[in-house]
Design brief:
Strands 1, 9, 10, 11, 12, 13, 14 and 16 form an eight-stranded mixed beta sheet that branches. This protein has an eight-stranded mixed beta sheet with strand order 2-3-5-4-6-7-8-15, sandwiched between helices. Helix 1 runs antiparallel to helix 10. It has 346 residues and is an alpha/beta fold. Strand 6, helix 4 and strand 7 form a beta-alpha-beta unit.
Length: 346
């Protein structure tokens, strides 16, 4: 147990480190008071190899070389392109290497679609998955396939975005709290610019993406009672052009700032502002290279860095514990925290 707790502790510490540019200041770190402490034995090693990408999905496998019975665990995300999901996959792979005896695959649809993600769940079950880590595309849309997976004895662990179906545990950012943190960052920047009122544009990915909806809820709540007006949400719907058009429309109406609820919308906002040559205030989510570049060159003011590697790592650990019967709780939640990234903290 001590060895695993040491592994988890190192993972948590690593999740708080920023990579890439040198740090000129200390970022603000918002973390839960009580971190998760799973308990399970660690054994063996793992060999990693990547299979060829298909037209609608990418499959990556990790086959254990340690002793004992191998377990099959799948990661299913909303799509395969976002660097955020790649970070969750990285955490899963790290845990698979530490635990050993894991056959691990990452699959997902090529676009945000309930039916396509449901098909991925069905595929995982048909290929013998004993546990599925999933970032659910919507709260209700994949529940039928999750029910079939549970009926087949598959353990369900949510990472980043949960459906309404019962699970072993859900590892995610407290998205309402993170949305409030984003709002507080924007308020600070607006005050620094001497702006005390005006309209703020709000951009989301889809109206059914629960994690982004929760961020928006926290963001909007934080502006209640102020002289700012928050515009109706514009959804990207897998088309960055929707966001860029909305930013152009907002600029025409004199919007004072823009908020993106995920990586894709945040980058689209920043690119639209940069192309316009204006210095509009942008606060977003996630830390892809594209988003960090927008922070570094001053196009965006701040972004909320989540801890996706920790979600994948600790989700894999708990999934294996659930398979082996050493983790018996259900519907538990762990806030994996956010870090506020600005140019001063890079």
């Amino acid at each position: 147990m001590y060895q695993l707790q040491k592994i988890i502790g190192l993972s948590l510490a690593a999740g708080l480190l920023l990579t890439g540019c040198g740090q000129a200041g200390d970022p603000e770190i918002i973390m839960p008071d009580t971190p998760m402490q799973p308990s399970a034995a660690v054994s063996g090693g793992v060999e990693v190899e990547a299979a060829a990408a298909g037209e609608a999905q990418t499959e990556q496998t990790a086959q254990a070389s340690g002793s004992g019975e191998a377990h099959t665990v799948y990661l299913i995300t909303m799509d395969l392109a976002d660097s955020y999901w790649q970070s969750i996959d990285k955490g899963c792979r790290q845990a698979a290497e530490e635990l050993g005896n894991i056959t691990y695959k990452w699959i997902g649809p090529d676009t945000h679609d309930d039916a396509l993600q449901s098909a991925c769940i069905d595929q995982a079950v048909s290929e013998g998955a004993e546990a599925i880590l999933i970032a659910a595309n919507s709260a209700e849309g994949v529940n039928g396939s999750l029910q079939a997976a549970a009926d087949a004895g598959c353990k369900i662990v949510y990472v980043d975005s949960a459906a309404s179906f019962d699970c072993v545990t859900a590892l995610a950012t407290d998205n309402e709290a993170a949305g409030k943190t984003a709002a507080d960052s924007m308020k600070t920047a607006l005050a620094e610019r001497g702006i005390t009122s005006g309209t703020i544009g709000v951009m989301g990915v889809t109206q059914d993406t629960a994690s982004c909806v929760a961020r928006e809820t926290g963001f909007r709540a934080a502006f209640e009672g102020t002289d700012f007006v928050l515009a109706d949400t514009v959804y990207m719907m897998d088309d960055a052009g929707n966001i860029k058009n909305a930013v152009a429309a907002g600029q025409g109406q004199g919007y004072v700032a823009y908020f993106g609820t995920n990586e894709g919308t945040s980058v689209a906002i920043g690119e639209a502002v940069k192309e316009s040559g204006r210095e509009d205030l942008v606060v977003g989510f996630d830390t892809s290279d594209a988003m960090l570049a927008l922070i570094a060159d001053g196009t965006a003011y701040a972004t909320m860095q989540q801890n996706p590697e920790r979600m994948g790592h600790d989700g894999m650990v708990i999934a294996v514990q659930a398979i082996e019967g050493t983790y018996t709780d259900t519907n538990t939640k762990t806030d994996t925290g956010v870090t506020v990234i600005t140019a001063d903290s890079m």
